[in-house]
Specification:
The structure is a homodimer. By secondary structure, chain A is mainly alpha-helical. In chain A, 59% of the residues lie in helices and 11% in strands. Chain A binds a DNA duplex through helix 4.
DNA sequence: AGTCAAAGGTATCCAATGGATACTGATAGC
DNA sequence: GCTATCAGTATCCATTGGATACCTTTGACT
């Protein structure tokens, strides 16, 4: 793993690592993975915990994660049906990098909200100035 | 400690940390930040390095990052114009968490591609079986 | 003088994605 | 029968993303 000649490069649009990187960055996928970090969860529970996601989009997300081997889908032959989603070993290996990002996000909330307010105020002033 | 009462919680749709988390997960934003990790870059260079992004979308991405205080935009009074984008201190603090994700993505490329092939093959067989 | 090129974007239009809402199918319990 | 539960589909519409063309300023070239 020499950093000199990385075999995979996210900046190359033809490199599969980029596709994978963007799957992680998917709006719902990363939340689902973090929820599954505590163990298997069924579909309806996921919907409640990863609020507010519509069933169609949650299904799409879960199928994509399953396809990439990050989660498994287990159907229990019951009525009403019970379907459990669970992290694979690969999926679990994502928990740590994701939790670092999460910690970053949670700890920088105040700073970023301040920056937004300042930026928006500046925009407002610019607009007012131009109309005078 | 129940996870229900975290001060900032990504799973809460009303918590700003979620919005921020999703900005990081934006398709282009995280790539831009990683490119800017080596120092300021001008617009046209960014377009080349973060290929392939259209100017409209790159502008949207940069404006959003600027609004959140992760990058600065500096216009040099020249002709032709020169505009440099540069990470702020907050933006730089994102580099480490992002590089962990990037390393994860790059190192898991083979595993995930295999999983995809296996999944797609299984889907194909299921389709063939149902049509017989 | 006229024309071209460079840089950093906008403007416009169309395709893809995301989301709201309603519905399905099997069965157990009332 | 009627209803409830669960895990989704089906359908439709709004938002976003992307391709392409265009704009502006000024220096260099012809």
């Amino acid at each position: 793993m020499e950093p000199k000649d990385l075999p995979a490069n996210i900046l190359d649009p033809n490199c599969p690592s980029r596709v994978i990187f963007q799957r992680i960055g998917d709006k719902w996928a990363s939340l689902v993975i973090q929820v599954l970090g505590d163990g298997p969860v069924r579909f309806s529970e996921l919907r409640k915990m990863v609020s507010v996601v519509t069933p169609k989009v949650l299904t799409q997300t879960l199928r994509a994660l399953e396809r990439d081997g990050l989660i498994t889908r287990t159907v229990h032959a019951q009525v009403p049906p019970r379907v459990d989603y669970e992290l694979t070993a690969v999926g679990e290996s994502l928990l740590q990098p994701l939790s670092m990002l999460r910690e970053w996000a949670e700890s920088h909330v105040p700073t970023i909200l301040e920056a937004r307010d300042a930026y928006d105020d500046a925009q407002d002033e610019a607009l007012l100035g131009s109309s005078n």
